[in-house]
Amino acid sequence: MVELVNLSKDWAKALTDKDSKRDHVAFFSIGSWSHKIALMVLPLAAAAGQKVIYLSESIFSGKNCLRSYLNSNFKVKTELSSSEIRRLLTKNKAAIFSIPKPISAFFEKQINSFVKRKTPLSKISLNLLTKYFIVLALLSGAKRILVDLRIAPDSICSNQAMARELALSWQRAAHNFNISTCFLLINMIQPLGNSLGCHLQAAEVIQSLKGNGPLDLLKLSLEIATELIFPGQKIAERMEIKKLLKRKLANQQALLKLKEIIEDQGGEISYEDYLIPPSETAPTRVLAEKTGYVQRFNLKKFLILRARLKDWNTKANSNSCYKDGIIINSKIGDKVGKDESLAEIYFHKSFEASTWSDLIKNIFVLYPFPPPFQPFVIEKLKNNFRSTP
Question: Per the count of CB atoms within 10 A, which of 191, 306, 315, 388 is most buried?
């Protein structure tokens, strides 16, 4: 373990050695929908002048990691040296990179020993998870780190108490290395945004960077980007930062920054290829059987749906012209009339869509009255170990 820490320190030193400044920040997103948030937050923060880096995968990401998502959609290179990362930070203020293989291999072996025994991620030793986080923190070479920690049935944290315990353990460890941290505890009570499926999610990010995306994705991205740029608590200054970021969306500077980040890391992007809905595919609509408000999502059934769609996308992505996926039209709190659309299914073979309708319909729980408001960000933990609701 000491050897890994020293390796991470050497990497961080090489990352910052040229100008001896740690003027960049790091952003980690742990849990579902990380790739959506990363592709929104990085160009937003960079377009506003903040240098920011993102680790493209973690032990907790699996097939959801940003690296595979970037490769399948944009052919982006993420295996970078410290000098390449430093060059990208100087050129476009953002870099996305993979954990060096000696480090990832060590922790994969340690953590997978739990997973192979079918132990939930939440049962993995807190000490081991904290060591893993510290190595990532040192590896980033950043003076400040923001972690978006998701609370969900398939996450390492299935409730707020677990998430808080983990965040505080990580925070204390980072404090020992003079690294400032902020943890946002996110309650994933429903999908983030409206799209499911690799291609549709990339399209949703591009539309969101034009200012036309789902409100929940936009609001959470603005909150995280604001925290990266201005970690203080002065409301007036934070509001000014958000206004600046909204202008970056409105004038499409954030979208241009995403294109710059992708192309500078060897990828390619054409906005015309990312439309919602896909213009060439007719949807199969999933209709409500009664009038009511979407009270909640059945998260267990939703996880089954998402797992099936992942398997399907893995097969379909061998042919890149396939843009299979699902668009959710109704979120928690929305009123839906009988026979109104809950979701739309886009599959290149129309007969496949019919097999998904019942599963999709069963993830929506409708009541005759609206649900109470539940915010996404339920707690913020800064490095003074005090919480801000």
Answer: 191
